[in-house]
Automatic annotation (TrEMBL):
Name the record gives this protein: 3-deoxy-D-manno-octulosonic acid transferase
Catalytic activity: lipid IVA (E. coli) + CMP-3-deoxy-beta-D-manno-octulosonate = alpha-Kdo-(2->6)-lipid IVA (E. coli) + CMP + H(+)
Coiled-coil residues: none
Gene3D superfamilies xref list: 3-Deoxy-D-manno-octulosonic-acid transferase, N-terminal domain, Glycogen Phosphorylase B
Enzyme class: transferase
A UniProt-annotated Pfam family: Glycos_transf_N
Amino acid sequence: MGTAPCGAVLAAAWWGIASLLPPFLRLNLRCRLTRGRETPDSVPQRRGIASASRPPGPLIWLHAASVGESVALLPVISQLLAIGPTHTIVVTTGTVTGAGIMQARLPGLHGHERVIQQFAPLDVPRWIARFVDFWQPDVAALMESELWPNLIAACRRRHIPLALLNGRLSDRSLARWGMGRCLLARMLSAFSWIMARSPEDAQRLRLGGAARIDLVADLKEAAPALPYDPSALDELHRHIAGRPVWIAASTHRGEEAGILAASQLVRHAMPDALTIIIPRHPERGMEIETLAGHPLPRRAAGQFPTDHDAVWICDTLGETGLFYALGAPVLMGNSLPGCAGGGHNPAEPAHAGCTIASGPQTGNFRQAYARMGGRVHYVQTAQDIAQWAIAHVGPHGSDNTVPAVTSPSDPDIARQAACAIVAMAGR
């Protein structure tokens, strides 16, 4: 199925269409730069122009789309640095926020000087070829559903082994391929090693054309608790000590209006309650403040909430672990009616011992939520959220400790993935 003629025809069609897109993509990159979705450094890298030189020796290319994938990839990078002491790693991300996580977290890894961070090139044949020919990776590993036809074809033509980490394919995504299923099969057949996130994902990947699944495990559940700066936590304690606090984490456009309404309801019941909103994309902090209709303190502006503030917008990058360390109840975003939906990883607040709530849209993390069972409370409306928050909030910021939840995942998952990648690089 992976070599079916229709797959080759569709791949050629996509190659032709993508070859015509550079003028439009350059304009789009400039627009994204003005909106903060790109940086001056990322724009040329999106066209495959490297910002660093390639060191000699074996090189591993890892690619993650955004924040969640970047966090899950970090333990694999750590293991690769340990078991491949002569290897260089080029890690690419598809978003500025994902790159920010890497910039913040990579220096904490032993051997991090052997990691080169870049932005991923867009799937334009000339740009992909420029990237691959410059870096000449010995192996490429893609995270989750980062299946790009020209990227995969470029690796295939150059005999670069491909691995898929935490492979994810939802029922909806599989259905959307429709008549293009043969192109999906062509891409999946190019992978030498595939790790599926769950048995359900493994089955859908097989239906999509994967020849075999080598490992079924979830890197996101195996990831350690999010880090935080203890001195920043002490400062947080001083500012909110004694106040009832609840957190809306990784929120998306379309759900913050309900969260703000819930905050008002909580405030009626608990006049000193504080709602902390952490947008998934920090650049949306001002947008949320505008939605509220009145000034709100924003962490990105160096502001802390006063006793009169009901909401604090924490629109900085890489500090979610700091707020989870409070042990306050956490509502996971991208899950409420009104947003695109799909949920976010509940294991992250669970590692910090936080009580967790979620909206009904958790399709991207269905298995993770299923494994947590009754430990997650489900809400839909502002009234639901307020009732849950009132029942679980308490004074935070002093000696408030909550026992952390132990991850049910195999702690060696990252090492298994790293060993597979190193073995492929040596072929």
